[in-house]
Design brief:
The chain is mainly α and about 300 residues long. Helices cover about 75% and strands about 0% of the residues. Helix 3 packs across helix 8, helix 3 packs across helix 13 and helix 4 packs across helix 8.
Length: about 300
């Protein structure tokens, strides 16, 4: 009887929560779908920032976009940056999470230090790193010069190769989200598994690679998809560090779209680029939802 009453009470609470959330969800849904419709519709027109003259051009914007090598370069950079972050997440993030789960002294402080970059605004992190990597008075070159190294060729943000490396370094620095996923899943693993493995003679390396790593496969999948999606939201990091340069070396889809939007012209072309990126992001989101649903079902 008490269980039945508890179930009824829980159902009523759920209905109350839906009732209060429904107006906000409705407003957000209308704005979201209108924005998507607005972008897709305008991708078939040629217009500028004045929004006065709309000229229907059909698929012309898409044909221009798909023949622009810089657009492909931006997508390629998105993929490369994502792969590097994924690799860092499933290696460094995983190892740090395992280290923190061993209850070493100061593990909470270490977790806070590692997770902090993920909750600090990305624009702030990019601005700080840009100042640190500045050629003339940046902290990095100043310290290296003080140590007796020749910093004349260390143009971190203006040399194509070094700029690419600098962007990757800053993105990897924001390692907190993979660490959080792994840390959460490690707490669900029965400690008896570790004890049984140790009784069977498994050393620390075997324990990590053969037992713990396969057990957190749900986090692996989540990190891969979420990182691919997150790279579409890293505009401020790349823009504030290199603005997509030098020579489009670090161009990503966000800086590509912004570069055309800033001109105030050819916004139909910008809408076409945004539509294609939206389709890619939606496909990744569908995959992520299916993987999450599958992991919960299992």
């Amino acid at each position: 009887m008490s269980e039945h009453l508890s179930e009824i009470r829980q159902r009523n609470n759920n209905k109350s929560a839906i009732f209060f959330l429904l107006p906000l969800m409705l407003i957000v849904g209308i704005l979201l779908f209108y924005s998507i419709f607005f972008v897709i519709k305008n991708s078939f027109f040629d217009f500028d920032l004045s929004f006065r003259e709309f000229r229907f051009v059909g698929l012309h914007n898409y044909s221009r976009l798909l023949t622009d090598p810089i657009f492909y370069k931006s997508i390629f950079n998105n993929v490369i940056f994502s792969l590097v972050i994924i690799l860092a997440g499933v290696t460094l993030g995983f190892l740090f999470a395992v280290l923190l789960s061993t209850n070493i002294k100061g593990n909470r402080l270490l977790f806070a230090i590692l997770f902090l970059p993920s909750i600090v605004p990305r624009a702030l992190i990019a601005t700080v790193f840009k100042e640190m990597l500045e050629y003339h008075s940046g902290t990095v070159n100043t310290v290296l010069s003080y140590l007796g190294m020749n910093v004349q060729d260390l143009t971190w943000l203006t040399d194509p190769g070094m700029a690419y490396f600098s962007v990757i370094t800053v993105l990897v620095y924001m390692l907190g989200i993979p660490l959080l996923y792994y840390n959460a899943e490690l707490t669900t693993i029965d400690s008896g598994i570790y004890e049984s493995a140790q009784l069977d003679g498994a050393n620390f390396i075997t324990l990590i690679t053969k037992i713990i790593f396969p057990l957190v496969k749900a986090s692996h999948k989540t990190i891969v998809i979420s990182t691919l999606l997150a790279m579409f939201r890293m505009f401020e990091v790349v823009f504030l560090l290199t603005s997509g340069g030098p020579g489009f070396t670090t161009e990503i889809t966000g800086t590509y779209i912004y570069r055309f939007t800033r001109r105030g012209m050819d916004l139909g072309y910008v809408s076409a680029a945004a539509t294609i990126i939206l389709v890619i992001a939606l496909c990744l989101s569908v995959v992520q939802i299916k993987l999450l649903y599958k992991s919960k079902k299992n």
